[in-house]
């Protein structure tokens, strides 16, 4: 048990941290557009980096295609460990990290509509700034977020999630 903890701590120190650590990151569920790194301790030929396609499948050495959609990094790591124990490795130690989250999208009455990188603690006001600011005809209140098919009314302090689509409406005056 202590050896496994030390292995995970060593891996955490050696892997580059590309994203801000956030309390909700432990519950984050992998989705299409995310980029992940899977490291099998002491087995460099089994360590991979992958961008998740719409199919949700990645190709993993020895195991073939595995579905990663809607799993937390810990759940995926445990699933891969269980599969590797079944005939491949004696005591695998797998670590899964999110290297890049799927982008957010800003559209409507902004100067530079399009996709922008996601970071934790990002809010609508910051996303608008990333999109070059509001146009002269932008509404000050007709702001919405589409999140997993659901339309949500937004304001400048609404916190964003990976994959959110922010729509800024236009006003007549």
Written account of the structure:
By secondary structure, this protein is an alpha+beta fold. It folds into two domains: 2-100, wza like fold, CATH 3.30.1950.10; 104-170, Roll (Outer membrane lipoprotein wza fold like). It has helices at 2-14, 73-85, 124-130, and strands spanning 35-40, 48-51, 57-60, 64-67, 94-100, 104-108, 114-116, 138-147, 150-153, 165-170. The protein has a five-stranded mixed beta sheet, covered by helices on one side. A three-stranded antiparallel beta sheet has the order 2-1-5, with helices on one face. A hairpin with a 2-residue loop joins strand 8 (138-147) and strand 9. The protein is elongated, with a radius of gyration of 20 Å. The termini are far apart.
């Amino acid at each position: 048990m202590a050896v496994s903890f030390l292995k995970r701590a060593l891996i955490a120190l050696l892997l580059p941290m590309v994203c801000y650590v956030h309390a909700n990151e432990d519950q984050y569920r992998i989705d299409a557009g995310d980029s992940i790194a899977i490291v099998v301790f002491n087995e460099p030929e089994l360590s991979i980096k992958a961008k998740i396609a719409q199919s949700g499948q990645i190709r993993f050495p020895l195991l073939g295609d595995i579905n990663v959609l809607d799993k937390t990094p810990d759940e995926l790591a445990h699933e891969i460990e269980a599969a590797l124990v079944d005939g491949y490795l004696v005591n695998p130690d797998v670590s899964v990290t999110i290297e890049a989250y799927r982008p957010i999208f800003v559209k409507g009455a902004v100067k530079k509509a399009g996709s922008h990188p996601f970071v934790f603690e990002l809010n609508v006001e910051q996303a608008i700034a990333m999109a070059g600011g509001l146009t002269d005809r932008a509404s000050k209140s007709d702001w919405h977020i589409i999140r997993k098919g659901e339309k949500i009314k937004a304001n400048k302090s609404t916190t964003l999630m990976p994959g959110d689509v922010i729509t800024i409406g236009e006003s007549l005056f």
